[in-house]
Amino acid sequence: MTADVCTQLYNASSWVLNDLYCPAQFDRISCWPPTKAGIRRIIPCSTHIFPHASPYAYASRLCTNKSRWDTRSNYELCIGCSSDGYSNVTETFSIPPNYIIARKYFIVCANILSIILLIIGIFILLGNSRLRKYSRNILHVNIFFVFLIRSIIQLIAELYMNKGYFSHNVFERTDACNRTNIYFKEDHLLDCKLFTILMNYISSSVAHWFVFCEALYLYRLLRAKPRKDQVRWYILTGWLAPLYLTTSTYVIRWILKTDLYTCWFEPSIYDWILHGPNVVLQILNMCIFTYICTLLIRKLNTPHQVGAPSDQRRFSKYSRLTRSTLILLPLFGIHYFFFMWNTKPLLISNLIVIHLTVHTISSSLQGVLVALVYTIVNSEVQREVLRSFQRCLIRHDSSWEESGILRNYINKLENERLYSLGSHRSKSSIPGQYRPRLSSNFTQNPFTNRDRNNSSTPNQRDSL
């Protein structure tokens, strides 16, 4: 209901109004009918705004002797304790102030580090022409942007909102249960609600959808290598699907006038439109994660063609399995599966701090782990960056062509990649474009047109 609808409702009725009556008025919560001067009007609580109010509760407002409504409506009984015991608190637990301060500094430092590393990763993947051609790196860049925006939002929330950025725009009320509720003033609700929508779109939805798209792409890559043009459908799904769900959720909440003065911070039953698909995505991610781990174990347990497996080779096998599993954890966002539920009512009070600590560390450092795993410590990315750097040095100083410092390190990275493909393979079975240049008296420019023509195309080398 709006102010115009409220006024038209009583103007069309048989009310006979004069100067002795307060006119019908809408206070953004209830429609107050015309009331005689000097009378305190009582109406039932709105079930849309106060769904847990007692059926016997009511709101009141005074029509003054000057035939003007009082500036404040009394909704204390509507926001008080309900008859079904919904608002009764059996136990309260306060987090130590020192912990809150330490957690805030950790979140700020972790998000600043995430922003720096993600920006470096984006520049590396987009700045190198060879890395930019790989379809999987285009998908990585999009998820980098997602985590970058999320880190910026979390940083703003910690630095500004928690410092009282909105403190002068809110007012507090204490209900009958002695609970302090914070409400936002009408003039500043729009800014706060837009920030809430953006935060939920990025943090709760886009992150889940892009993590699922990465997992699904890796799954299809292992079963049947996807074409490069399919990546755009993963990217469009990652951005547009959560946009549709987020828009639907908050349009419904706006139409039904839920939590008008709470900036939509409070949970609502309509939030399942947004969070319900995220639960399904996490279950699918767990299934894909289990399948890929099983596939890795099966491949690493394949017997070698030459010789029996030695202790060193067995150790290398399990170390590669452990490394591959740890790489998959931030990619699939497995920690979301354990912390996406509201488990605080089920936890013992002493365990709430442990739950909050693990959740804070995992969510704040995910951007750091993703940037490190897929760019900075990735051997393929290091190899391409060093080659570009060496070409730049040779272009400006020809004496670097004779230097073997960078070339030896590039060859080391190439040998590690070949060993990960299978150490039992003989040198003759390795294609020429993949063989490392190990000759110490190598004098030819390693980046001639002949080598570039012999190098494989991005589709041929678009592996894990």
From TrEMBL:
It is a multi-pass membrane protein. The chain crosses the membrane at residues 105-126, 138-157, 194-219, 231-252, 272-297, 318-339, 351-377. SMART domains: HormR. Residues 438-464 have a biased composition (Polar residues). Residues 5-78, 103-378 form the G-protein coupled receptors family 2 profile domain. GO terms for cellular component: plasma membrane. PROSITE patterns: G_PROTEIN_RECEP_F2_3 (PS50227), G_PROTEIN_RECEP_F2_4 (PS50261). Keywords: Cell membrane, G-protein coupled receptor, Membrane, Receptor, Transducer, Transmembrane, Transmembrane helix. GO terms for biological process: adenylate cyclase-modulating G protein-coupled receptor signaling pathway; cell surface receptor signaling pathway. Its main location: membrane. SUPFAM superfamilies: Family A G protein-coupled receptor-like (SSF81321), Hormone receptor domain (SSF111418). Residues 424-464 are annotated as: Disordered. One of its GO terms (molecular function) is peptide hormone binding. Belongs to the G-protein coupled receptor 2 family. PANTHER family: G-PROTEIN COUPLED RECEPTORS FAMILY 2 PROFILE 2 DOMAIN-CONTAINING PROTEIN, PDF RECEPTOR-LIKE PROTEIN-RELATED. This is Uncharacterized protein.
